[in-house]
C-alpha cells in the first residue's frame, strides 16, 4: 500500500492508504477526503482535483508539463502555484510512499 | 459569429410516424420543435442504441454528425486540438456563425481556439472564481429571500417570471455592477441573443441587430466610466483593465459581453425552473428533500444534469479522424448532444430518473469538459443551492399546477412558463 497525506486548507491532515497504481484523486475520493471534487471521473478534463504538491515531493512527482491538457486546464484554476498538479494525473507507486498533498480552499 | 451563433434555427415539418419506423438516415434531431414538445429524448434513445455516432446528411443547418453517447462526447470535448470552436469555421452551435449578412459578426472566447481563447477567458475568470463567490453568496441569498418573501401563497403564479428570471437577472446585475433599476435590460438582451425571428421574442433579424447594438452602446458607456478604475471586481472593470481584453475590437467586446450575459442567465434560469418540474414529477424525491434538506448539495448537480440547460455544443473537425468507428472528415460539423449523453444508461445509472442523492451527481456533461468547460459552473450551483435553501425555509411545497411551456430552440433547453402554487409549512 502507498501512504498519502492530504492536508486541508484549514490544516487538518487526512492520512490514507491505497494500492499502487491508483491515482491521488482516487486516494482522496475513495477515502472521502474533503475538498477534492473530481467531477470528470479522472479523465483530466475539468481541473476539480487541483492539489499543491508538498515542495519536498514535487521533484519526485514531477512538475506540470508545458503544453499538456493538464496545463491547459490548470491555467484557469484559482490559486495555482509552481507545485500545482491535478490529483488524477498523479499515479501512486512505491516511490511516492509518504507523499504529502495540500488541498486548496475550493475547487473550480 | 453572426449573432446567430447562439440561435436556434428554422424548422421542418415533423413527420407523423412512430420513431422506430423512421429510417436511421432520415432522423434529424436538430428540429427545434422536437425540443419545444420535449419529444427529442426518444430519438436520442434510439440513436444511442442503434447508431450512436449518427450522420444527418440534410437538415436546416446543413449536414452534421450527432455524438450521442457520454464517453464519445467526452472524447470530442477534451480534444480541442482536433475539434475546433473557431467562429469562422462555424463556431459552437449547430447553427453556423458568420453565415448571414443581416447579422453582426460577433466574436467571443467560447468560439475561439488557443491561444486567444485562453488569454481572454483568464481575464474574466476571477469574477466567478470561488473566492469571489464567497463574497457574492450573502448578496445572492438576501436577494433570493426578498424575491421569495414577495410571492403570494396559495395563488397561481408563473415561477419562471416571478423567481427564475428575477434571481438570475439580479445575480447578473451584481456581477456586472449594472445599474440596478435598469437590470431588466439584461434579461431582454439575453433573450434576444438566442432568439429566432418569429419565436415571440423578436420579429426579424434586423430587430435583433438593432437591439444588440443598443446593448453594446450601453455597455460601452459603462466601460468608459470604469476604464482605469483601479478597484472593482465586476466583469466590466475586469475586462476594461486586463491587457488581454482592454483593446478588444468592438464586435469582440459585444460578443464576449453577450456570452457572459447568456451564459449567466438563460442556463441557470432554466435550471431553477427545471428543478421545480423535476421535484413535482418525482414526489418521492420531493418528500426525501423535505425530510433531509442537507441533500440540497447533491440535488443541485442532479438538477443540472436532469435539465441540461444547453442541449449541445458543436465543433468543427480540423482533420480526418474517427469517432465510435465512424470516419469524420476534415471540416465536418460535429454536434455533442449533452442532453443525450446525460441520459446514457451505460455511464449513468437509471439516467431517466431524477434522484437527489445519487452517488456521483457531479458526473454529468451539462457544463462540458476540457478548456471550454462552463466558466460559471460554481456560480450556477451556488444560485441553485441558495434558492432551494431559501425555498425550504419558507414553503412546504412549490406545486406545479399546469403544464410547463417550452422554448422553440434546439440549443437552449428553455422553460418559458411554469404555473405554480406555493404552500406554506
From TrEMBL, chain A:
<keyword id="KW-0408">Iron</keyword>
<dbReference type="GO" id="GO:0046872">
    <property type="term" value="F:metal ion binding"/>
</dbReference>
<keyword id="KW-0479">Metal-binding</keyword>
<feature type="domain" description="2Fe-2S ferredoxin-type">
    <location>
        <begin position="2"/>
        <end position="107"/>
    </location>
</feature>
<dbReference type="InterPro" id="IPR036010">
    <property type="entry name" value="2Fe-2S_ferredoxin-like_sf"/>
</dbReference>
<dbReference type="InterPro" id="IPR001055">
    <property type="entry name" value="Adrenodoxin-like"/>
</dbReference>
<dbReference type="InterPro" id="IPR001041">
    <property type="entry name" value="2Fe-2S_ferredoxin-type"/>
</dbReference>
<comment type="similarity">
    <text>Belongs to the adrenodoxin/putidaredoxin family.</text>
</comment>
<protein>
    <submittedName>
        <fullName>Putative ferredoxin</fullName>
    </submittedName>
</protein>
<dbReference type="GO" id="GO:0140647">
    <property type="term" value="P:P450-containing electron transport chain"/>
</dbReference>
<keyword id="KW-0411">Iron-sulfur</keyword>
<keyword id="KW-0001">2Fe-2S</keyword>
<dbReference type="InterPro" id="IPR018298">
    <property type="entry name" value="Adrenodoxin_Fe-S_BS"/>
</dbReference>
<dbReference type="GO" id="GO:0051537">
    <property type="term" value="F:2 iron, 2 sulfur cluster binding"/>
</dbReference>
<dbReference type="Pfam" id="PF00111">
    <property type="entry name" value="Fer2"/>
</dbReference>
<dbReference type="GO" id="GO:0009055">
    <property type="term" value="F:electron transfer activity"/>
</dbReference>
<dbReference type="InterPro" id="IPR012675">
    <property type="entry name" value="Beta-grasp_dom_sf"/>
</dbReference>
Automatic annotation (TrEMBL), chain B:
<keyword id="KW-0560">Oxidoreductase</keyword>
<keyword id="KW-0479">Metal-binding</keyword>
<keyword id="KW-0503">Monooxygenase</keyword>
<dbReference type="InterPro" id="IPR036396">
    <property type="entry name" value="Cyt_P450_sf"/>
</dbReference>
<protein>
    <submittedName>
        <fullName>Putative cytochrome P450 alkane hydroxylase CYP153A11</fullName>
        <ecNumber>1.14.15.3</ecNumber>
    </submittedName>
</protein>
<comment type="similarity">
    <text>Belongs to the cytochrome P450 family.</text>
</comment>
<dbReference type="GO" id="GO:0016705">
    <property type="term" value="F:oxidoreductase activity, acting on paired donors, with incorporation or reduction of molecular oxygen"/>
</dbReference>
<keyword id="KW-0408">Iron</keyword>
<dbReference type="InterPro" id="IPR001128">
    <property type="entry name" value="Cyt_P450"/>
</dbReference>
<dbReference type="Pfam" id="PF00067">
    <property type="entry name" value="p450"/>
</dbReference>
<dbReference type="GO" id="GO:0004497">
    <property type="term" value="F:monooxygenase activity"/>
</dbReference>
<dbReference type="InterPro" id="IPR002397">
    <property type="entry name" value="Cyt_P450_B"/>
</dbReference>
<dbReference type="GO" id="GO:0005506">
    <property type="term" value="F:iron ion binding"/>
</dbReference>
<keyword id="KW-0349">Heme</keyword>
<dbReference type="InterPro" id="IPR017972">
    <property type="entry name" value="Cyt_P450_CS"/>
</dbReference>
<dbReference type="GO" id="GO:0020037">
    <property type="term" value="F:heme binding"/>
</dbReference>
